[in-house]
Fold each of these.
Amino acid sequence: MVRIRFQQNLDDLKEKLLVMAGMAEQAIQRAVEAYRVRDLSICDLVDRGEMAINRLEREIDQMALDLLAMEQPMAIDLRFILAVIKINADLERVGDSARAISDRVRELQAFPEAEMPIDIPRTANLASAMVRKALQAFIEGDAEVAESVLSMDDSVDKLNGAAHYTLLNLMKKEPAVAPQALNALMISRALERVADHATNIAEDVIFWVRGADVRHHMGAAAGNSKADGK
Amino acid sequence: MGVGIEVNLLNAWYGANHTLEDITLHIPANEATALIGPSGCGKSTFVRCLNRMHETNPIAKVTGEVKVGGVDIYSETSAVEVRRRIGMVFQRPNPFPTMSIYDNVASGLRLNGFRVRRVLDEVVERSLKHAALWEEVKDDLKKKSGASLSGGQQQRLCIARALAVDPEVLLMDEPASALDPVSTAKIEDLIFELKSQYTIVIVTHNMQQAARVAERTGFFLNGKLIEFDSTHKIFTNPSDKRTEDYITGRFG
């Protein structure tokens, strides 16, 4: 094996991204838990975590930039670093979504609790599962696992669409709970965005492993032959 | 204008050493094609087969077909004519040290019997302009020797010398490996300009250079052409694992 130091640097980059991924995933779980139990101390944890995620984003970008400049990577190494840069941005936005949920929970403190006829925990579980699976695909370099994430996105979109419809109707029928319904709507929307980021991460893993750009449902077949040979 | 090169089942030997095995590829006209691979992989031997320089070694042997512009250079034309149509630039600039800049560029034409002063003047000026050297040397054409120029200028002088005999193909064997980054950039810019008029084949160890200047890239390993594809494909998503291992530095 030549370029041992470079390989070590790639491993370090991957490890750092996984640390950030763990924090982003935890942030979503905490934010949803804060909403479920209306606990502001959990919101504080989410907010602090988001700042740590932002710091890591900058560090990872710097590491990736250094590797691009100093090592001039090619082929699978180049695709890996590009994928890391993009996944890094998506994970940072997962952190932002957690923070957005946390903000909604704080706002809800001003209003009496009201039962919302939508299933936020189910949407949250699905979105978290997508993030977890996308990261599993990243850890294992497994494009097939990444593909399975893409197919999960529709379920979250449907749940969010249904929540949107239900909550708008509720606001019309019961204007008194409109603030709570509006916040629930924004939380559902934030979770839907988390699922979108998980989808992006999965697409980046496919790009890294197969060299195929499958974004926007285009060119899904490209590059499969090489991956099959791995 | 440049012409395409068709290579079919080319084999080459140095004595008992089989240095090229069944190489088949098509080099398109008016493009730059880069050849990469570890030392001793056969890429330099390959370009030396394209202008019949390989056979100048008494223990060397070549079989197969190399058609330049549809003409088989091994059976349908002379070695001298081949080397007029196919110019070559080497790793180390090799101007004739005792000749002036002018005489260096004119040397190929004079060897071919051209003596008319006006014609020689025109060709020298045009060749130096094509090689992006004219502005730097036009006032010293006959005052300074080729050896008095900087390394980068000497290499461009050698390119001008190769262009003076109006070739269709320009072979470059690591033309910038002995040059500093600024001179290297000038040579790369020049390759980009020359493509419109010549077919260029460049051997390089510098993969970033191949990626910058060439439309197509061939990867050689142990005398075999492992992969030949668009440069974009080779450097972002090569089809063969051996190509990927080489360009990512996992061996070589």
Amino acid sequence: MATTITMPQLGETVTEGTVAQWLKSVGDNVDKYEDFVEVSTDKVNAGVPSPVTGTIRELLVKEGETVATGTPIAVIDETGATPAAAEAPAAAPRAESTPAPQTPSGNGAAASVAESAEIESAARGASPAVRRLAREHHVDIRTIKGSGANGRVTADDILAAARSGAATQIAAPPAPPPSAPPPAAAPPIVPGATQTSQYAQPVPGTFVTLTQARRIIAERMVESRHTAPHAWSMVEIDVTDVWQWRVREKDRFERETGFRLTLLPFFIRAVVKSLAEFPLMNAKFVAGNGSAPPSIYVNPEMNIGLAIGLPANLVVPVIRHADKLSIKGLAAAAGELIENARKGKLGVDDLAGGTFTVNNNGANGSWASAPIINAGQAGIVTMEAIVKKLIVRNDDTIAIRQMMNACLSLDHRVVDGYVASGFLASLKRHLEAMGPQGEL
Amino acid sequence: MASTDTATGTLERHGLSDDQLRAIFRNMLLQRQLDNRGFQLNRQGKVPFALGSEGHEALQAGAAMAFNRGSDILAPYYRDLGLCLGIGLTAYEIMLSIFARAPDHNGGRQFPNHYSSKAAGLMSFSSILAAHLPHAVGAAYAIKYRGEKGRAVLATCGDGTTSEGEWHETMNFAAVHKLPFVMLVENNEWAISTPLEKQMAEPQIWKRAAGYGMPGRRFNGFDPIATFAAVKEAMDRAREGGGPTLIEGTCYRYLAHSTDDNDMTYRTREVVMERRKQDPVPAFEALLVEHGVLTAQDVAQMRKDVLRDTNEATDAAEAQPYPTPADLYLHVHEGAWQPWQS
Amino acid sequence: MAVVSANTTVMNNVEAVRATLYDALKSDERVCILGEDVGARGNVFLITKDFVGEFGERRIIDTPIAEASIVGIAVGMAMEGLRPVAEIQFADFIYPSFNQIVGEAAKIRYRSNGEYTCPMVIRTPYGGGVRGALSHSVSIEALFYHVPGLKIVAPSFPADVKGLLNTAIDDPDPVMFLEHKKTYRLIKGEVPNGHYTIPLGKANVLKEGTQLSVVSYGLYVHWALEAARQLEGEGISVEVIDLRSIRPMDKTAILQSVEKTRKLLIIHEDNKFGGIGAEISAMVAEEALFHLDAPIRRLCGPDVPAMGYALPLEEEFMSSPAEMADAMREMVKF
């Protein structure tokens, strides 16, 4: 009989463990209560004793690998054990059922009159008791003159009206139509629902197990989208000159610093200049609580988050005090963050404290996008693909220019279109004024 | 060892028969085996938590021999496996506690090692240190209140607990009322990770007895016979109306605090290995063999028996059912009960 | 004490507590009293006056000043078969014994799966209006009423004091017995002679009414009753309910009253946030929302740490019959 050994929970609060060392190899014999693997967790390091006497058939986890508690780590063939009389059959797949759909009320016009009467009455301050009594006595609350404070209709008013018959009667709703056919037995929602796959190699028909990072992304996106009312705006920017400036400088820069010179630091430079002109774009909305009313906090620092897409997730490391850095400084800072992001070496400090976010989205060819604001910020700007276009200039000449869209999502609680348009216009102005020469 | 007169080579027995000496040794072996089993079951993922008392074996087996079953009361703490075995709990009852199975005295509610048995005179206690000590003197007061002769309460705690305010309150009250009460401190030098010198400026806890106006003494807790003698003297005085005593047994905690602790974060393996040289289990074995109380064959057989008993207890307890979800709602008060009366 | 009929005696609340404890000591050898100054001094309010002379130091135990162990020792006595009545001299001093009450007494039966029990009473005087300042005036019930395993009683009338204290001493589980100290000598009433009990969790409708239900306990029950009687003259009909028992609490009495009057005002001296009124409000919202013709209102102590010693600070903290009457009028008018 084969026994599968799972990663034990070594501690009340521990959720995963690392296989530090296999003390046995495949084919080795192991005695019951003999340690066969050393496991380390953030709380303890310990040998794990075998629950059975037998031979190691399989080691499922490599040394150094960390797995969740309960994950199978080894299979041992038990020796000397009498074969189980009959292995319990695997539990039959549980019939997952979806909730039965609500049967339509079918009460027709009378019901909707009653409903709208009640909705309106509720809006006018009729209490739950009044609404219940009005329903029970088929009284239209709107036709009653209230005797309560500020003319409020009280429960006694309803009862008096019902007794006197003075108020408009709402027809009793007709009996519901013959019962609707029962909903068909719901099919199991996902056949084979126990299979899972990885995000990087998703397999159709399986559940992708979320990494911690993906779970957090999902939660933060929902939070932002639900709490911050998003508005969106876009501007087209002529980046020909700044492009040429970059082309001129990039070889020297790469030789001197070892980092590639992209347009990103130029963009950030322009963004911080515009943020300086529109500090409300560098702010955040602070919800009120019982003791404090809601407010807007204008950040004293400009910490620019860079949205960096990775195969399995998205990270937004932060360049602190971006307004204090030259283009060169920004290039070096961004280069280091991007490199660390790709190596998975970003620290907690690298990811915290952003006040505004820039997403260099155009590298992937996108022409316009509507980004979701990083929760706790007032805006996010994307720099889209740079495309050569025929442009009619102010002096009516036609030119081929490199054009780029910049898209802004803003938290409408913090700023309105007025500030947002001003910010985008400023961004356009700053970027078009850059190059083709200058000090990096 | 204090109990041997090295000059004459005689064994100072303090009245203990060969059978009692063998019972003490067997208790020590069983403690170690059950401790080990608890850790093994945890590492196998079968139980979420275990806590051992390695290093306390001699102290607890010796002290339990001075406990009168059927009349005395024990108010222990969570590192008292050997004391609880010594006053009558079985390996099976210990395993029921570790596995949290339905027939456990606590119905699988309490943490492991929080034993309780009204039949055995073993008072229920919580994980909050020193909270059990007022209960112990309350029980001692009840004994005196009813004028019951020959009964006493043995309460225990570790060195860590002596820093609690209720430890002081308890000692004071017991002394004021001359209660039939013995405070046995098992000083293993560690309060989880906090060493003795960070717990108290005066490391000899027994000296506090004078401040309360009661006798106090210290003994070598690695010596089960010396422990028996000290606990018996104190319990006899308590039983005869002579009032409370503070006794301190010195020992050492060989294991981490629990399966959730890594003691190598605050002490070195070398220090522990050095103290292992005084390990009371092989030392007492050597003493008993030297004096002919046990032969080497007896010891080997005893070890086999203890392992067999442990294996049988493990399997029997594991085979018991868990409490059911409905059990969660029982014993809040007597009878069915809700905060809203309707 | 004055005997007005063969069947009742007029007592104040101090006399009612004392008489009940006396009877319990007389009739049950297991009953003993422990606390600070309960012996020769006879308790600071003279509740145990002369007890030590009659019952001896063995049963009337003057403890050291150590509240945690007063409760803890009583727990041990109860586990070993006695029926201790532990006294905390002022409710304000109960905090050092919090663990013994919440972590130990309330859990003994539960954690031992019913093997051990903890039949004990913790008596303590609470409440303000007596110039008690920060540490001789607090209400503590909300700190404990959250705790499964505890029962809490807060009677306001001498007859209830006797019946409920008898029940508490007989109870197989720990009971906290809260005595409002301003009512100690202020409130007098007829108390039936002989032994009787009142079940826990039964409220008392002190005055029937049709337009508003007022739920209260302790000193404020008396003030609420005074206000309600005053409103009678204005043609306003208010029902006043004395909870008497806070945990368990009488759901039926509250719901029956609210379903009749459709309006609920909860009055207590303890501060509002998370207080007894919060639980009552939630229960009524869950069980009787469609009977409510006005928002539930709570008239409670302010959310400050305690009432100050200076008279204006105490007066600001405490409510009054006039303030209660105003709240009742507003609710009825709504």
